[in-house]
Amino acid sequence: MKEQGFRGRLIRLVTFLAGVYFFLEFLLPKSVLEAAGVADLHDEISNGFIVVGTMAFGLGIINLFRVHGTRVVFRRRDWLYSAALLSGLVLMMTVTGQDWLNSLSVTERNRECRHLGKFAEVIVEDSTNGREDVPPRTYRINKLHEAVEVTIKNISLEHEKAIKTLSQSLEEVSLVRLQELTKELNEAILLTDGITADDLAADEQILLLGRRITEVGVIFEKILRIQYEHSTGNKLYLFFFEGLFVSLGSAMFSLLGVYIASAAYRAFRIRSVESLLMMLAAVVVMLGQISFYEYVSEDLPNIRQWLLEVPNTAAFRAIKIGAMIAGLVMAFRMWFSIESESFSSRRGQ
Question: How far apart are CA 58 and CA 74, in angstroms?
């Protein structure tokens, strides 16, 4: 019990100090924070809290597997629903992870080419400024030229493989686009290969080489983007997310529409002055929305707009103010660790 009490007090203390820090950081001017030496550490402190917060996702996944996995293993009541939940979780995480890795591979070569282009600019800049704490200019130029040659060779090999794969599976429009990009890539590669090591004595040629290799990376990324869009991993992701998840969500909200219609019917039954006003406002708004309102009255759109902008806005602002006050109260309850009885000394009694 003593250990549990100490743990609860420690959690309360850490929560309170974190709340005090962010409260003061929001109120105090920047000059005071800089004088206290906190301004430079604020980003690191915020990132630390973000890291701690992201751990909750991992704990949530572990908790899902513990609760629903136990239900599946021991075949408890409604274990089929738990099996469907875990299967969907694992399947979607696998497909999404593979799709994420594929999207990273699309930009990898372009990122490498951009780094080489930036390196060419750095060589010229260091040479112009006369920096002596870097390797010799000739050595860096040779390394740049070697890296460009290796990158061009790798891009050419990967391009041949991509063409063989895509030429058999693309429709006519995408195939024409692929052929245009292939032509642009071959021209860019020829222009890049045309700059020899002897030409790199001039700064203009070094910068030109950087621009050419950057252009090669941009064009090749467009080709890889086409390959990615027609890959099996991306099609699986689109099938599970847009084909199943979005469709199931639409089905759920369509079922909720029935309950909304039922609630609207009950709300619009005229039993008092308030319900009469609500019914009249709803009728005016609906009549002002339809295209043949002029058969009823030409002033309906203006009345509808006034109802939406004045009384309706005032009501929503009142709701928003109430929600903000409730959020502030909840924030103070969390700050002082009274949002639940998780750490209360009377827990379990």
Answer: 24
Using pLDDT thresholds of 50, 70 and 90, give the confidence band for residue 340: low
In the three-class reduction of DSSP (H, G, I as helix; E, B as strand; rest coil), residue 337 is classed as coil
Question: What's the whole-model pTM score?
Answer: 0.64
Residue 337: phi and psi, rounded to 5, are 55, 40
Alpha helices by DSSP H, the chain:
2-27, 30-36, 42-73, 79-129, 137-166, 172-193, 203-229, 232-238, 246-267, 273-289, 300-309, 311-335
Q: Are 233 and 99 in contact (CB under 8 A)?
A: yes
Residue 222 CA to residue 226 CA, distance in Å, equals 6
End-to-end, the C-alpha distance of the chain in Å comes to 13
Q: With 0-12 CB in 10 A as exposed, 13-18 as middle and 19+ as buried, what is 106?
A: buried
Distance CA 171, CA 229 (A): 12
pLDDT in tens, 234-254: 899 999 988 888 898 889 888
How far is the C-alpha of 156 from the C-alpha of 267, rounded, in Å?
68
The full 3-state SS of 235-296, as one line of letters, equals: HHHHHHHHHHHHHHHHHHHHHHHHHHHHHHHHHCCCCCHHHHHHHHHHHHHHHHHCCCHHHC
Q: Which residue in 53, 64, 1 sits closest to 22, CA to CA?
A: 53
The residue written with tokens 């090669």 in the block is: 216
Tell me how far apart the alpha carbons of residues 79 and 69 are, in angstroms, rounded to a whole number.
9
